Amino acid sequence: MLLGEGFPEVRGTGQGAELWGLLFAPGPPLARGEEIKIVWRMTGEGPLRVKATLPDGTLAKLAWGPERHDGSSWHKPGEEWGTGFVFPKQGCWKVELTRTRGSGYVWLPVR
């Protein structure tokens, strides 16, 4: 976990892509039941698909997005999208991002 642009920043594990997330929250652990804005930067090609799951199969609610951003002051590789998630339960959530070419994931703790 790094601090970027005043918000916590996470680096994902990518396959054929580089992945970064900027958490618009006080920091991990994230709060369950609240909408959390996360901005993603990911290399690769094609549209972005995103989902978040717990190891037991529980899905987080994607409140909005992914929405493509045209410009930003956050400088990481790749194209940028915004998402809004509501994590209904505490635990360690796997957020998976997939493009036509390239994929990646990050683990986010939720209390």
Q: Counting H and I runs of at least 4 residues, what is the number of helices?
A: 0
Low-confidence stretches: none
Radius of gyration: 13 Å
Shape: globular
Tell me the count of domains: 1
**Helix/sheet category:** mainly beta
Q: How many strands, what sense, and barrel or not for the largest sheet?
A: 6 strands, antiparallel
Distance between the termini: 17 Å
CATH superfamily: Macroglobulin (MG2) domain
CATH architecture: Sandwich
What is the spatial order of strands in the main beta sheet?
1-2-4-5-8-7
Strand elements, count: 10
Strand content: over 45%
Helix content: under 10%
Q: What is the helix/strand order? A: EEEEEEEEEE
What is the CATH topology classification name? Immunoglobulin-like
Mean pLDDT: 94
CATH secondary-structure class:
Mainly Beta
Explain the layout of strands and helices:
Blueprint: E1 2-4, E2 7-11, E3 13-15, E4 19-24, E5 35-42, E6 49-53, E7 61-69, E8 79-86, E9 91-98, E10 103-110
Antiparallel strand pairs: 1-2, 2-4, 3-10, 4-5, 5-8, 6-9, 7-8, 9-10
